[in-house]
Amino acid sequence: MLDNFSLIRNVGKFDSVNAGANLDLNKLAIIYAENGRGKTTLATILRSLGDKEPLPVIERTRLGGQGEPHIVIANNSGDIAMFQDGAWNDSDINILVFDDNFVANNIYSGIDVDSEHRQKLHELIIGEEGVALNSSLQQLVSRIEKHNVIIRIKGMRVTAAMRCGLSVEVFCALKNIEGIDGLLKETERTLAAARKSEAIAQKNPLMSLYLPDFDVQALNTLFAKSLSDIETATADQVGVHIVSLGTGGESWVAAGMKVVSEHDLSDCPFCKQDLSGSEIIKHYQSIFSQEYLALKEDISTCTLGLGADHRAELMTAFERNIRKLSEDRQFWAEFIDIPEINLDTALVSRLWRSCLEVIKALLDAKKESPLEAISLNQEALDLISQYRAVRNTVHGLSSSLAAVNEKIKIVKESAAGSNVTMLEADLHRLNAVKSRYSDAVSALCDDYLAEVSLKKVTEDERDQARTDLDEYREQVFPQYQEAINRYLVKFVAGYRLENVSSVNNRGGSSCNYSVLIENISVPLKSNQPGQPSFKTTLSSGDRNALALAFFFASIDLNTNKSNMVVVIDDPMTSLDDHRSLTTIQQIKELVSTVEQVIVLSHSKPFLCNLWSVAKSLPLSAIKISRSGSSSTLSDWDINQDSITEHDRNYLLVSDFIDNGHGADERFIAVALRPILESYVRVTCPKFFPPGSLLGRFLETCRESENTANQILEPEVRTELRALLDFANNFHHDTNPAWQTENINEQELFDHARRTIIFASI
Questions:
Q1: Which of the residues 168, 188, 681, 702 has an alpha carbon 20 to 30 A from that of 138?
Q2: What are phi and psi of 302, to 5 degrees?
Q3: Which residue has the higher pLDDT, 295 or 699?
Q4: What are the C-alpha distances in Å from 43 to residues 33, 65, 99, 387, 470?
């Protein structure tokens, strides 16, 4: 509870006020001020203290004052609330202020209710516990926004080029694929084949390669052949003779022996000598027999076969095929794996020709000397070995290419039925996966996903906080609606609230409600021109009554209200008389439920009535009064200001009756008629409304005598008439010379006594 305003310096109208240190603030503290004296400033100071918000005080820095605002407020716990150097200290005081600021912030501004009012009203309804829940929720929402900012920044680091056109979320969520490189290559080839399906359909498989071999064993066998049944001496003798004949001698002899044999000649076809006795002829016949001829035939056959198997066009075709294969390989290599064709065709041709030339020379030599046994020399064998090595390479390549043809068959079948669009999509996704899991990009994505994961955790916390808040609001809002309507009944308001509920939106939580007038629901905002709404259906008094209802209801539902200092600044603005009385009654009831109530007003009658109603409570009264060009705090004798004109007249006449001396007799005489008028106005309000004259009233009473509508008893009317006749002598309306009318003290005493007696009936 606040004890006193120890110091108010350089704030509003207050220059340097410490008089308040001697003015105690009680359980119910009443503060009066004329307009412009500093009442609103004092309410603002208390609101600033409760909110721990220095700006309202700073904004009211005294114009022309010396120094910054300085405020000291003592409380009963021994703590000091101090505003200095632009801020409040750490004092913990729970203050709730009802003033124009409360209404403008929480309920309405002018005649409109906007989104800010509904957000503030939401906080007012849910109270400290709900505000704490809502604050936790908003903090989590704010954290999510920060996560979103960080996610956007980290997402921007994963560039569009890295993402292959995918969104950051989709790209970073891609799963890795084992063997991505192989699958990517296969898909690229499949897509390429699909795009060239027509060319693939028309393209032939790869041709095979062939190089003829040289049968070394067969050649050596042929070269080693001779005539096995000829005696060695005979063979030697013929051999010596043939050698003596010179080059081609053997062929010449062989040809001659053929002629002799075919024509069965007995003499030499050249010299006509008899052959029967020739010893050499017998040897010739033994050697150049059918077997000899067969050998010659074998040599010829081998020579022809070699020429056929190794004809020149075969090598030309081989070189042409190699070129064709290279071209075909380049075509098919786009779709499948194909061995490289790295053959040195010049080497192959050279070795082939060298082998062919050596073997042909040996065959020619054998043909000339069939009986002479020869063999492939080492040079020939080396050439053939080299040739066979390149031949094996060619045949190995051909076998590999034959296996590739199986793949080509599959490519042809696949390309014929492929969907290019789907394959392009597959390739695009595979490229994205490869990019996603590259070292540089993977680190960026992992960083992005880590932040997304943190956001998910925060979102789960937010959802739980929202659930907790919603469950709390489901309990509080119906209670609040009931409490508000209960106060609206007390204020005799012609409307009620319905559908008081919370609304979640991006800007935070807010409150929504409708005004129910004659069972017709009126919204806060009209959606169409001319439609009834809050601003068009509630009068100024109704709106102020609603604000008070919200204020009192929020206190009722506050779990910490027993420690609350409630400040009420001019609550009766635009209120009817009956609502002012209700407000006074509610303030009186409020005092017993909160720690302290401070009421400020510029209306003396309102404060005096409050003082009168709350006489049984611990009370204090302070007045904000003028002190030169500034304002100060002083004790307020509210009892004196509570005395009405009737009270003064009554006391003046009563004192004259009791004491007689010391009073101006003319003042006593003048006071008699107002006493009578006040009495009749209270006892007969129906027949004597404000502005009526007692003479006419008495005439009406006389006319109603002895009827069902009789107003006064005849003797009462007679007494009132007598008293009025005396009093009229001292009233300006009935006696222009009232100020000089002669006064008899005994007569005055008698009429004064009778008037007091009459007004006491």
A1: 168
A2: -65, -40
A3: 699
A4: 12, 20, 8, 116, 34
